[in-house]
Amino acid sequence: MGRIAYVNGRFVPHAEAVVHIEDRGYQFADAVYEVWALFDGRLADAEGHFARLERSLSELRIPMPMSRAALTVVLREAVRRNRVREGLLYLQVSRGVAPREHPFPAEDTPPAVVITVSRVDRAASEARAAKGVGVVTTAENRWSRCDIKTVGLLPNVLAKQKAKEAGAVEAWFVDDLGFVTEGGSSNAWIVDGDGVLRTRDTNANILRGVTRLSLLDVIREAGLKVEERPFTPDEARAAKEAFITGAGSLVLPVVSVDGKPVGNGVPGPIATKLRRLYIERAKAHSI
Ligand code: PDD
Fold first, then answer.
1. pTM above the 0.90 mark?
2. Residue 2: what pLDDT?
3. Which has the closest alpha carbon to 158: 181, 177, 178, 185?
4. What residue's CA is closest to ligand 1, atom 9?
5. pLDDT digits (tens, 9 = 90+) for 224-252
6. Cβ partners under 8 Å of residue 164, min gap 6
7. Helix (H, G, I), strand (E, B) or coil at 52
8. CA atoms within 13 A on the CB side of 46
9. 210 Cβ inside 6 Å of ligand 1
10. What is the domain range of residue 202?
11. Rounded to whole angstroms, how far apart are CA atoms 130 and 273?
């Protein structure tokens, strides 16, 4: 059975799914998105992603395209029609279709909605997590509203391409003060020399990762020490462990930064344990 996409009220074969050339997402990146991990056909951390979607839309004054309840029905239907159990669901909401003028279009312009569902090979993801991944660093060059999850991802695209060309999986942005902000599509963490978990605070210009937030709960429940405090790439290399979090990576051990090993260069026990605990929690909080 082929993949099915949702485009503005219709389920259509993936290969035939198209948007208008004057969609403001296409022309201005005037759109937001969310990505849910799917475990056993259910949307993980559903509440957190809905809350952030509503916030991103409201910060840009794009109306919710439909109620949260209606959207939930559509998202689940998209998963059902694709028969995906383990995967990712992508939702994009743009300000809609209108003649190309920078200011907002007429108020009655309906937002445009696109949903795609893709399969993830969990065995392959687990194998990757067991090996760990490399990250590279790159100068922070994004706009100052990275808390809004917009599709304006060109710096992230370039950063992640740099990572790929270096044989790494993620790029960590480093701000003017020399501190890591976050990854191109994930949040960044270390376990420092004192065994304290550290990740950037959300007053910084970062995305408030839903996985990050849930993992903070998991960490506290596990009785581990955590501080929302910045770290430098040197501190990451000197750390006991490092890892990244996101709907795609879940909790993924980082074993090198700019080609130099973190700790002894293999995934550490804390990241490995947190990955397992996070997945258990995400399954329990899925709809
Ligand atoms: N990215 N930081 C950035 C810049 C991101 O793009 C993402 C997610 C995260 C992690 O957020 P969350 O835990 O809510 O997934 C942090 C998605 C998965 C993507 O762009 O595909």
1. yes
2. 87
3. 185
4. 186
5. 999 999 999 999 999 999 999 999 999 99
6. none
7. helix
8. 17
9. yes
10. 125-284
11. 11
